[in-house]
Design goal:
The protein is of the alpha/beta class and 235 residues long. It folds into two domains: 117 residues, Periplasmic binding protein-like II (D-Maltodextrin-Binding Protein, domain 2, 3-Layer(aba) Sandwich), CATH 3.40.190.10; 103 residues, D-Maltodextrin-Binding Protein, domain 2. The protein is built from ten helices and ten strands. Strands 1, 2, 3, 4, 5, 6, 7, 8, 9 and 10 form a ten-stranded mixed sheet that branches. α1 crosses α9. This is Substrate-binding domain-containing protein.
Amino acid sequence: MNALNILSGGAAQGLVASLAPKFKAQTGLDIAGEFGAVGAMADKLRQGMPADIVILTSAIITKLAQENWLVPASISDIGLVETAIGVRSGDPLVAVNDATGLRAALLAADAIFVPDTKASTAGIHVAKVLRQLGIADEVASRLRIFPNGATAMRHLALSDAARPIGCTQSTEIISTKGVTLSGVLPKGCDLATMYTAAVAMRAAAALQAQHLIDLLTGDDARGLRIEAGFLDVRN
């Protein structure tokens, strides 16, 4: 066995990557698997994709544990992740301090890069916010929808649109080269989602999976969590 298999929401990809060298030094294992929309990752686990560790929203982790896909005793919260606005690096930041500012920023954009609006945490929320702001129909043709937030942000970074912006988890914006965090969604439009890790019931490397969870949630990684965009649950 050369690698620990992971199924994770894209929100945790940057943090996992930052700890991968330490994990390999301590266990001899690389980290392999998939990062994507949380709903899609949960379905992959249910469909039998091999996994040792799963990192998804707390609500989905709870449901998967109830379905006997995860080891209940291993469940550990990593931290809260906010949904936010990103711009291409070098573009002016946009004002999203209140709902009015967010509405104006979205209307001014000629391309809006978002993750899956039916299977991802941030994408589902973006669709809700657009309806809430009364602009869903007006901006529908400008939406650029991708399977997950990381992919959406990579395409934002390379966009040749005049005024593109993106909306996804803050961690995905922070970890994408060529994209800058402009601000989290304002009160009334905001969303902070708890991301949680657990060992898969059918894990081939359960001890190593638990070790990675300990690294992700431990006090030594607090600075890395904050740098990656997690709001530390231990504050």
